[in-house]
Amino acid sequence: MAQAAIGLRVKSGWATAILLAGPVQSPRVLDRRIVELSDPDIPASRQPFHSTLESHQAASGKAVKRLRRIVERCAHRSVTTLIDDYRNSGQDLCGAGLVVGSDIDPATIKNAHIQAHALEGRLFRDVLEAALQSNGLSSLVIVERRAYAEAATLLQRSEDELKRIAADLGRALDGPWRSDEKMATLAAWLTLASRKR
Asked: Which residues contact 99 (CB under 8 A, 6 or more apart)?
């Protein structure tokens, strides 16, 4: 059986997951789903740093720590379920690729609101990486704005060709095939290709 990889487009509180199976030259999408990284019953866990922007600093720190633990627990549970489902269906998983919006250091951002976005992006990326690692999967991180350029180099195809293929791969599944799915597919494809080197 060909190896498979998981691609995840990380958002605040959730991620779009794609399961992509090889071979690298002609991969196919096997599954798409949403992975919850926050607790739907605790809305503040979707944007833990935003929810504390107006709070007193000491109270805010405690609230963020509590919300971070909730996020860690939810992400670990969701990722473990995802990986178990794929492994129990016979998939030979070689790793996961995460597409993130930015890799900027949140500490360098002066605007509190923009910094909250960056802190949340880093939080959800970190908890996903930790959950994947605890389930025995290594991960690579790709910044969205550089994803197609990096893929073009590794896969030795033009960016336009990769965009067309990423769009076409979604035809195998019912329902909409949006940018998040295409990015997660590209991340899974890069993961497959990088594991073959």
From this structure: 7, 8, 9, 10, 142, 143, 144, 147, 183, 184, 186, 187
